[in-house]
Amino acid sequence: MKVFLSWSGNLSKDVATEFSVWIPQVLQFVKPFLSSEDIEKGSRWGHEIAKNLEESAHGVFFVTKENIGAPWINFEAGALSKSLENSHVWTLLIDMKNSDLDKGPLRQFQTTLFNKKEVKDLVKDINSANEENALPDNVVDMSFEKWWPDLEKSINQLISKYQGDANQSIKPKEPQDTSTSNEILEEILGSVRNQERLLKDPEQLLPAEYLQYVLKKYKPANSISIHAIKISS
Questions:
Q1: Pick the residue with more confidence: 73 or 232?
Q2: SS3 annotation, the chain
Q3: The CATH number of the domain covering residues in 2-170
Q4: 65, 102, 162, 233 - which has most CB atoms within 10 Å?
């Protein structure tokens, strides 16, 4: 029994990949088709996906908050639901609530929250869809109980990973230590103020008495009063 697995975005793709490995262990007759894994390199991927949509009567769509309105996942859901009268489209909501689908086109399909009870119901629905070769309920129950912890752990790890990445990307920058910068700024301002004072009153730098001493020592014959050379303000 072929089951088409549709994804859009990194989290959706990684969850779909985990599910594609997990579901055949629970329902051995299921043959999942995942475009990222099952299309050979060099193949016309658009043609291959269209072909598998036509051949599939059942599909699981991995929906996240990021891909609710993604054109591709909605196109595949619409194409699969219209391909055959007895087709089934299941949406598996990852880190979402049913109310998150209120405004999206995917709300028309049967939704599954990612928890043990609802994923188990999804598995039983897939089993029931295989009318001729469905497994007995007790076999499905035993198989699900055995393999559920593996899926739960891997998917929750993926959700945590992507939540962490999202938080990291919007994390505000840590405030820098401005104490050193403030000290440098104060030093610069102090220097500027000192220069301003010197320009207004040069005698602070070279007192009149010192200039008179120098002039008398080196030019005794031409002693000049400091007041004669002082620049008037």
A1: 73
A2: CEEEEECCCHHHHHHHHHHHHHHHHHCCCCEEEEHHHHCCCCCCHHHHHHHHHHHCCEEEEEECCCCCCCHHHHHHHHHHHHHCCCCEEEEEECCCCHHHHCCCHHHHCEEEECCHHHHHHHHHHHHHHCHHHCCCHHHHHHHHHHHHHHHHHHHHHHHHHHHHHHHHHHCCCCCCCCHHHHHHHHHHHHHHHHHHHHHHCHHHCCCHHHHHHHHHHHCHHHCCCHHHHCCCC
A3: 3.40.50.450
A4: 162
